[in-house]
Amino acid sequence: MKTASTQLAAHVAGETATLATCWKVMRRDGVVLGFTDHDQDLTVDSLLYQASTGYTRSAIHTISDLSVDNLDIESALNSDTLSADDLRAGLWDGAEIEIFFVNWQNLTQGKIILKRGTIGHVELQDAVFKAELRGMTQQLQQQIAELFTPDCRADLGDSRCKVNLVALTVIGTVTAATDRYGFTDSARAEANNYWNGGLVTWASGANQGRKMEIGSFSGGVFALYLPMPGVIAVGDAYSLQPGCDKSFTTCKNRYNNGNNFRGEPYIPGTDTVYNYPDSKS
């Protein structure tokens, strides 16, 4: 049920309504932004809602069977607070969204909350982005308990894995780069595939402070899983952490960490479950 102040409810019930829609974005890095489809900026609860980056939305889809309700939001990339680089870097992934109505002629009447949720799939098309807003019931679709798995459920270097990543981290400098998907460091002498699945963190250049997983490594050439938001240039400094395929063999042989393996490598699989007696065996 939607709630509103007495004054705002009376305004909505009147013959003429002066309503504007606002959406509040709370990114996971702590940045809070506001946008509105009104033709002027609005300040609601001390937050500025920018009209320069207006947006359009689809109809809000809500049903009562606990399925995930959703809508699409589309906006132009014409503001410093809504850049393509930030979207590519994942700064908007999982951001919390609140959409509401206000009476732009009298903001003291309060607001009517239309939808709360998180940003899901994001598409970039030229100077426009489209984001999927997933309702709060999306949380009911998430796995919250651990399952038995043959692979390790810990992440390399976390509190359960306990591998000391500081001792395994190296630094380097880009000696050649052709695009945002990869680079070369001719000083790297590790064996082919050594850095597969690892993590590169940029210490300088257009991608400073950003990270990306490494898809493959061979002869000093790195291929990234996804393109970096900024251009990779010769001289960019970086640090590297190794990766882990989460298998017991890698945990034991490469990291000598079998005692901390968080998986069940010898648990029977589906083939065992579907076995049946065979008179020939």
Helix-strand layout with pairing:
Elements: H1 6-13, E1 19-26, E2 32-36, E3 42-44, E4 47-49, E5 55-57, E6 70-76, H2 84-88, E7 96-103, E8 111-125, E9 128-135, H3 165-168, E10 170-173, E11 176-179, E12 182-184, E13 199-202, E14 211-218, E15 221-224, E16 237-241, H4 248-253, H5 270-273
Antiparallel strand pairs: 1-2, 1-7, 3-4, 5-6, 6-9, 7-8, 8-9, 10-16, 11-12, 12-15, 13-14, 13-16, 14-15
Description:
The protein has 281 residues and is mainly beta. It has helices spanning 6-13, 84-88, 165-168, 248-253, 270-273; strands spanning 19-26, 32-36, 42-44, 47-49, 55-57, 70-76, 96-103, 111-125, 128-135, 170-173, 176-179, 182-184, 199-202, 211-218, 221-224, 237-241. It contains five helices and 16 strands. The strands form three sheets. The protein has a seven-stranded antiparallel sheet, with helices on one face. Strands 10-16-13-14-15-12-11 form a seven-stranded antiparallel sheet. It has a two-stranded antiparallel sheet with strand order 3-4. The longest helix has 8 residues, at 6-13.
Comma- or semicolon-separated keywords:
281 residues; mainly beta; Pnp Oxidase, Chain A; Thrombin, subunit H; seven-stranded antiparallel β-sheet; 16 strands
Distance between the termini: 64 Å
Describe the sheet with the most strands: 7 strands, antiparallel
In round numbers, the mean pLDDT is 83
Helix content range = under 10%
Helical segment count: 5
Order of helices and strands: HEEEEEEHEEEHEEEEEEEHH
